Amino acid sequence: MKKLFLASASVLTLISACTKEVEVADRAGILQKFSFSDEVQDIGIERLTTTLPQELGGQTIVANVMREGISEELPAGDIEGTIGIEDYVEVFALVANKMINGGDTTQIGEGMGAFIISDMEAMITSDSDDDDIVGAIYTQGSDEDMVGVAIVRGMNDSIEVLAAGTEVSNIPTLGEFNYEGANFIAILDQADEEIDGDYGSFNATVDFAAGKGSINSGFGNDPFYIDGDFTVDTATGIFVGDDLELIVEDQLADTVTIHGNFHGAGAAGMTGIYTPNVAEPNFIGAIAGTQVLDVVD
């Protein structure tokens, strides 16, 4: 497995420099929640819609945010000195903007990957040995039509996973469409001083007319992958699959739930966060990719 980032660093350094100009337009509440034993905080997923400031393009961003401590809802950060849920989205947007406009990145398939660092000027690096790493990020697309995934350290050394992109519009009503992109996983090991992670790829086929799709995601030569079906709300671009199969060495190891969104004009992109259907999940996965232009007849 590849080390994604150091646990000792925190994204709060960047959050403290946020201008708090990101506005929360909608919070959909907790989509999924896991209750842990011992001293581990609850983990859950929240969907929110935010509007970026004009200097970041002014787009509307839809994000699924998975974080520890979901029982204690993060407020909107409209109070001086308060860290709000939208601050994480603003950091994501700032870093994605830096990547798209010539930052120090590494090519990953059709997208770009980088490590997030606590240097407000540079923000990103391709150097995995940098001492200031606070997270990892992948983006694909442009300022106008972007999807991405970020994994960072949040408050109290908790893990934050964001899967986000521009708001969807003009969702197709006919035909099947193929998607492909990057697949990431973070291993939840409370005893480890670093976060283990890996990355691979995913492929999905979506029939918008029928409101359903299928996905397969894996990690190169590693002997495990996720495969299964999901349903699509074609009015909102939200998709959910709660019975995907986790296959390990050709055997069914567990089932998995994915929560995701389609993004951009014509549902050009898709992102999602997935976890195993167990009381105390040991990993969080995330995908981000774009539509393959060829339409399946």
Compute the average pLDDT.
78
Count up the domains. 2
The succession of helices and strands, N to C, reads EHEEEHEEEEEEEEEEEEEE
Low-confidence blocks of residues: 1-9
Helical content stands at: under 10%
Main beta-sheet strand count, sense and barrel state: 9 strands, antiparallel
Q: Structural class of the secondary structure composition? A: mainly beta
Number of strands: 18
- What share of residues are in beta strands? over 45%
Question: How far do the termini sit from each other?
Answer: 39 Å
How does the overall form come out from the CA principal axes? globular
Radius of gyration of CA atoms, rounded to a whole number: 18 Å
**Count of helical stretches:** 2
Structural account:
It is a single chain. This protein is mainly beta. The chain has two domains: 2-166, no CATH class; 176-296, Porin (Beta Barrel). The protein has two helices and 18 strands. Strand 13 (212-218) and strand 14 form a beta hairpin. It is globular.
